[in-house]
Amino acid sequence: MATAIATPPRIAHRIVAAGADLDTPCLVVDAPTLRRNVSEMAAFASSVGVALRPHIKTHKTPQIARLQLAAGAVGITCAKVGEAEVMVERAGVTDVLLAYPTVGEAKVRRLLALMARARVTVALDSREAGELLGHAIAAADRTLDVLVEVNTGHDRAGARAGDEAIALGLDLARTRGLRVVGVMTHEGQANAAPPETIEATALEAGRALVATAEALRQRGIDVQTVSVGSTPAATFTPTVPGVTEMRPGTYVFNDTSAFRYGRLGPDDCALRVLATVVSRPAPDRAVIDAGSKTLALDKSLGHPGHGYVVGHPDAEIVRVSEEHGVVLLPPGEEGFRVGDQVEVIPNHVCPVVNLQDQLVIVQDGQPIDTWDVAARGKVR
Ligand SMILES: Cc1ncc(COP(=O)(O)O)c(C=O)c1O
Predict the structure, then answer these.
(1) Which residue among 55, 264, 348 is best mutated to probe the pocket of ligand 1, counting the most ligand atoms within 8 A of its Cβ?
(2) Cα(133)–Cα(177) distance, rounded to whole angstroms?
(3) Are the C-beta atoms of residues 343 and 16 closer than 8 Å to each other?
(4) Is the domain of 226 the same as that of 273?
(5) Cα gap 272→257, rounded to integer Å
């Protein structure tokens, strides 16, 4: 079903002051907005009595992981072993959930090395992966804590909630080297759900996960962790009684996909792509120096085009080639002279961050620091 795109609030503030000397395209992060996003999610988790284990795939930056831990996160979530290696090494993280099927001999060797330096839990959704991991872990005289990945409607990875996940959980629990300590789901179906149904979608996912956890307990498994994770669903799924942990990722920065839920607008988006107008080939057309190699290619359900140009809500980035962003300007649009800088809120901030080496941290309009996106490109 097509969903109407909500109009985002038109008032939005630039975070970089005119005249700040920054080469473009680059990623700028407003420090106060970042800190507010981090602390509000931590406060929410604590208000509903669940542990916060943020997914670091959004920022891949040790300093931000440290901010999240300082705000009360119990540990972090990563997809890939490589991300976890960086966070343990450079952010001093001591507790990691790999919420992604970890498969392959090379991965298992690295996982064992990681287990020597941090508490590691792995989500699994197949007996095959369980056998491979369990065999190597048992041979090393270790035990690996495992969450059963449950499909509560996203239809990506995961054993279907109910009988399928229960059977998998029991088999994993019988596998030497593994200890099943919980269940997890990524209720990503909520991200695409029409705004008026997102709450019901999220609650349904949470209840299906809790019911699966309870069924496993009745069969003798000591299920301690019941973990959910999605930014759009973050205020709903963790409220289901029985959920113990939440793993939002995107909330640290937010992006245009958040606009459609009405709660968040451009001023909640801590990260922007700072870009320069490099060409004005026609009265209704400008070209910025951010194309698909900077803005990525994701579409948004919250805003048309390839990103939201702060202060110019009717200017649409209609097309990107690798290094060109083509902006269609409404009649009478001021600005967009060659050399002007614009701030663009990405449609999907996570792949955008993965394309850059550094984040420029900004306070009161001025760059105050540069942080390495140390886990960028760590897709293995
Ligand atoms: C397994 C898992 N957990 C948590 C998240 C966080 O969701 P979001 O990006 O909506 O914050 C994701 C996102 O892809 C995920 O794949």
Answers:
(1) 55
(2) 8
(3) yes
(4) no
(5) 14
Q: What average pLDDT does range 270-288 have in this prediction?
A: 97
Assess whether 74 and 131 both reside in one domain. yes
Q: Which among 155, 239, 236, 186 has a CA at the least distance from the CA of 57?
A: 186
209, 266: one domain: no
pLDDT of residue 9: 57
Q: In this structure, which amino acid lies at residue 75?
A: G
Ligand 1 atom nearest the C-alpha of 233 is 10
Domain that holds residue 350: 257-372
For a pLDDT cut of 90, what percent of the chain falls above it?
90
Structure-block tokens of residue 14? 């630039």
Average pLDDT for 146-171: 98
Query: Do 98 and 223 sit in the same domain of this protein?
Result: yes
Number of structural domains found in the chain:
2
Which residues have C-beta atoms less than 6 Å from ligand 1?
Answer: 55, 77, 99, 186, 191, 229-231, 247-251
Q: What is the sign of the dihedral through the CA atoms of 370, 229, 244 and 234?
A: positive
Same domain, 240 and 282: no
pLDDT tens for each residue of 171-196: 999 999 999 999 999 999 998 888 89
Residues 222 and 280 in one domain: no
Chain centroid, CA 201 distance in Å = 19
- Which atom from ligand 1 is nearest to the alpha carbon of 99? 1
* Residue of 41, 57, 152 to test ligand 1 pocket, by largest number of atoms within 8 Å of CB: 57
Tally the residues of the chain: 380
Q: At which of 236, 253, 270 does a domain end?
A: 253
The model's pLDDT over 7-60, given as tens digits with 9 standing for 90+, comes to 555 567 999 998 898 999 999 999 999 999 999 999 999 999 999 999 999 999
pLDDT digits (tens, 9 = 90+) for 303-328: 999 999 999 999 999 999 999 999 99
Residues 79 and 96 in one domain: yes
Does residue 231 lie within any of the structural domains?
yes
